[in-house]
Recover the amino acids of this structure.
């Protein structure tokens, strides 16, 4: 999927999805588990260790930064409060822009900087990156996708990716390698639908390297995507940090916020 107009609505949907689960899972106090595994005569299974590194991620409070084929981004997520602050930047061809998405359930705000296009295209004057646009999600196409779901919490598609891992091996201190199935990561902001389709069967076995932090939690995921069709080989990188400590901006108010005209919703919905 290109990091373009549709990503705004897609990210709105993705953020809404994670909030239903909130902060579930056990708190700290399970530190005895790794020690027990270490004393066992049977080595820990690398894939199980990798999946276990998502324990804090699954609680829904973290910072993330990522680079993709067509752009980069970052986010601070606090699912316990149903809040998220996402930043995206496109670097592909003529579709260069930056945007921020602030979700403070039940409200959503968008700030997008289209550069010269904001003044060149009638109706897009608000897309200059200066003010928050209050988004009425009922006016976004496929609005049912923006509803909060109780059966899914993997905002970044990380768990789906790691569950698809094959041939996982330890590769040095807290590093693991193997292959992933990119077709399992349709919710990830890093992956590219066009590239996945171009890879065909090869999409099911793309090399990765995962690094765990000193606490045993996932800190970095790097995916080496081979060339496919007219898409050059490239690297996807995601860095997770500040588990349990993400900071979300306060709700914008007053002159910081504007209500968008119909032309903005037309753009967000990908219509002409």
């Amino acid at each position: 999927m290109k990091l373009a107009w549709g990503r705004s609505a897609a990210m709105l949907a993705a953020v809404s999805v994670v909030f239903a689960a909130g902060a579930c899972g056990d708190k700290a106090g399970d530190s005895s588990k790794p020690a027990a595994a270490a004393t066992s005569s049977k080595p820990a299974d690398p894939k199980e260790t990798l999946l276990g590194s998502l324990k804090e991620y699954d609680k829904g409070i973290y910072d993330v930064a990522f680079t993709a084929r067509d752009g980069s981004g970052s986010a601070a997520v606090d699912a316990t409060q149903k809040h998220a602050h996402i930043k995206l930047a496109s670097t592909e061809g003529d579709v260069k822009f930056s945007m921020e998405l602030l979700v403070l359930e039940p409200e959503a705000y968008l700030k997008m900087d289209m550069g010269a296009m904001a003044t060149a295209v009638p109706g897009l004057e608000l897309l200059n990156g200066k003010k928050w646009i209050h988004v009425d999600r009922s006016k976004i196409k496929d609005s049912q996708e923006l509803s909060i779901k109780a059966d899914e919490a993997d905002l970044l598609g990380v768990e789906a990716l790691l569950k698809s891992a094959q041939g996982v091996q330890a590769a040095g201190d807290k590093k693991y390698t193997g292959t992933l199935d990119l077709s399992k990561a349709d919710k990830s902001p890093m992956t590219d639908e066009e590239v996945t389709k171009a890879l065909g069967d090869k999409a099911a076995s793309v090399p990765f390297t995962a690094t765990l932090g000193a606490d045993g939690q996932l800190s970095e995921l790097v995916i080496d995507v081979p060339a496919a069709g007219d898409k050059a080989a490239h690297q996807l990188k995601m860095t997770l940090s500040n588990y349990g400590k993400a900071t979300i901006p306060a709700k914008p108010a007053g002159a910081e916020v504007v209500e968008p005209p119909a032309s903005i919703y037309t753009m967000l919905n990908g219509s002409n």
